[in-house]
Please model this.
Amino acid sequence: GGDLVVLGLETSCDETAASVVRLTPGGTATVLSSVVHSQIDDHAAFGGVVPEIAARSHVEMIAGVSERAMAEAGLGYGELDGVAATAGPGLVGGVMVGLSFGKAAALARGLPFVGVNHLEGHAVSARLGAPVAYPFLLLLVSGGHCQLLEVRGIGDMSRLGTTIDDAAGEAFDKIAKAMGLGYPGGPALEKLAASGDGSRFDLPRALLGRKDCDFSFSGLKTAASRLAQACETDQDRADLADAVQSAIARQLAERSERAMKDYAEKHEHRLLVVAGGVAANKTVRSTLEAVAARQSFSFLAPPMAYCTDNAAMIALAGAERLQLGLTSDIDTAARPRWPL
Ligand code: KG4
Ligand code: ZN
Model:
């Protein structure tokens, strides 16, 4: 076949997003448009995402956001080759909004429909910035997930490790909240850390030296929250932010290094990819890049705009599935839980 042009829709958390992506038979992706409406202001007063408010906001925004993505791509719905929407995992009320809108758009134009796993979207997101050949080792770090995955292709991944308590983004968010920073906490904590020096704090190093590739952040969260109570000056808080950021980055790097050693025994092509909201963190990126170099792995992160939730990654995962003939039934259900 020729190029595939796919509309992607993302409504699984607190961003209403639509994007049009073109995929060539050789696997080169071009983002024709990517529109993200963030609901952060709607949820800020509650210190986190309120599912009912999120779902209602998606209903209000989805048609307009989708129209804008089509207009910016300079296309009509009839010129698409398919429609893809996140079918889970996530807040199910929101997932249903994008999923139903996507099915309706596909039905109205007689187009194939693809229900996409949000995690699969993150898994392919680095391909939006550069051509990336399969297989690769993936560290997926978002607000809800913290996993190491062997990615052999679309729909062909296996998990090497996961968190036994909080996700990395969740750790950033909870510690930031304990420090009195706004929601979402990750970006706020990174900003504060820039003027800090965390070397005087000795935070716990979880699971160090363990033979598996799992993560744990609850000990760090408890320790950091206790230290946050004792902070007196802005400098104290900046120093603690820096210590927390380094500790999270260090754990992600240590567990990834463990996984790289196993991965290298099975695969000749050594590439570590990081994806998800936490991949936007510069300290996380540089720490991972350093251990990857030590293990003779190349290292790749998506362009900043495609780390946090977006619809371009959903459009691309949809296009890759479409290329393989993997379409979904029109009665595909929204799934609050959906492991890869
Ligand atoms: O991938 P994402 O947008 O949504 C989920 O699928 O969960 O990830 C959101 C998470 C939040 O926990 C947020 O605090 C974190 O990613 N995050 C960051 C940064 N930007 C977003 N964490 C650390 N540093 C950042 N710059
Ligand atoms: Zn996400």
Q: What stands out?
A: The mean pLDDT is 96. Strands lie at 4-10, 15-23, 29-38, 82-88, 113-117, 136-141, 146-153, 156-162, 271-275, 298-300.
